[in-house]
From TrEMBL:
It comes from Streptomyces asoensis. GO terms for molecular function: acyltransferase activity, transferring groups other than amino-acyl groups. Residues 20-30 have a biased composition (Basic and acidic residues). The keyword Cell inner membrane does not apply. Residues 43-346 form the Acyltransferase domain. This is Acyltransferase family protein.
Amino acid sequence: MFPAASSLVPSLRSPQSQNDQHDQSRDRSAGRPSPRPAAKRDAFFDNAKYLAIVLVAMGHSWEPLKGDSRVLQAAYMLVYTFHMPAFIVISGFFSRSFDASPGRLKRLVTGVAVPYVVFESAYSLFKRVVDHDPQAAITLLDPYYLTWFLCALFIWRLTTPIWKMVRFPLPLALAMAMLASLTPNLGGDLDLQRVLQFLPYFVLGLCLRPEHFRMVRRRSVRIAAVPVFVFSLAFCWWAVPKMDTGWLYHRSSAQELGLPWWVGPAMQLALFGCSLLLTACFFSWVPGRTMWFTALGAGTLCGYLLHGFLIKTADYRGWFDHTAVHRPLGEIAVTVAVAAAVTLLCTEPVRRTFRFVMEPKMDWAFKRDAAELARERETREKQETREKQETGKKLETQRAKADA
C-alpha cells in the first residue's frame, strides 16, 4: 500500500557518531557543506507497514477463494475494513512535512508519479500478454488493480498544504467523502471515488502526533483489542450475506450499489468509525521493538506493487480454479504462500533490483533550484577566497625565509 518504501515514509534522525562529527568538521574546514546525519528508522512504523502489506496481499489472494467459505468471507471483510486505512493513516502521518518545496515535489514525482506510470503501463501490458486480452489498453487516467494507491497518494500529497492551512481539516475531508459516496456521476478518471472516500484517513494521519500512536500501544488497549477483534469477526460472519463488500473498496456510490442516495453518507460515517477502531486495535498489537521483519518495512512499495503480478498470474492461468485450493487446507496453504512471497518481495535484494523504478534518480529531468545554485556559488567563492588567502600566506612565508 503504504507507496514509498523509504521515499514515502521519512525516517527519524539518529545522533551523530564520532566519525560523522569528524567528517562534518573536515567538510566545514574545506568549505564544503556538511552532509545530513544518518537517519534512524522507527521500528514501530516499519513493523506496521510490513504487517499491513502482508494483510493486503493475503486479502488479494482470498478474493477468488472466499466464495466457498463463509469464515473466509468474514475474515476478508474484517481485514478489508482496516488494512488500507491503517496504511493510509501512516502515509498521512509522514506527509506532515510536505510543503510543496521544489525538493519535496521532485521526490513526489520520482517516488510516486514515476512508479505509477511504469506499473500502470506494466500491468496493462501484462494483462494483454498473459491473459491474451488484446483489448487491455494502456491508460494513465484509469488506474488498474492496485496502482490506484499511487495515484491517490500523489493527489493527497499535493493537497497537504491545504489541509495544514484549514481550521477543521478532518470534518471537511469526511464531508467530501460523504458527498462522493452519493455522487454516481463522479466518473472513473484517476479513481476519484477512492481518492475522496479514503481521503479522511490520510487527513487524519496529517493531524496525528507521535503521542497518539503511543496512546494506542498501551497494554490496556492491547488487551481490549482482543474482544474487539473477536466481536468484529463474529459481526462480519453475520453480515456476510447481508452486506455488499463493495462498500469496503470505497470506489462506488450508493446508487451504483443499488441503494438510496442517503445510505452513502451514513455508510461512510459508520465505516470510518469501524475502520478507526480496528486500525487502533491493529496498531496496539504492532511491536515497537526491532523484529526480524522490521527491515522489510522499508521495502513495502516493492512488495505492494510486485505481488500483484503473482496474484494476477494465478488468476489468468486459472490456478485459483483448482478444487484443492478451495478446501480449508488449500486456503491456508495459499495464504501462507502469498505471505511468504510478499515478504521476499520486501527484501533488500529486490529493492536494489527495482530501485531504478521505485526510487529513480532523475536529476536530468529537473531544473536546478535557484537557491541551491546560489548556495553552491557562495560556497565556491568562499573556497576560492580561502585558497587565495592561503596561497598569499605561503608566498609571504617563502619570501620571509628567502630574506632571512
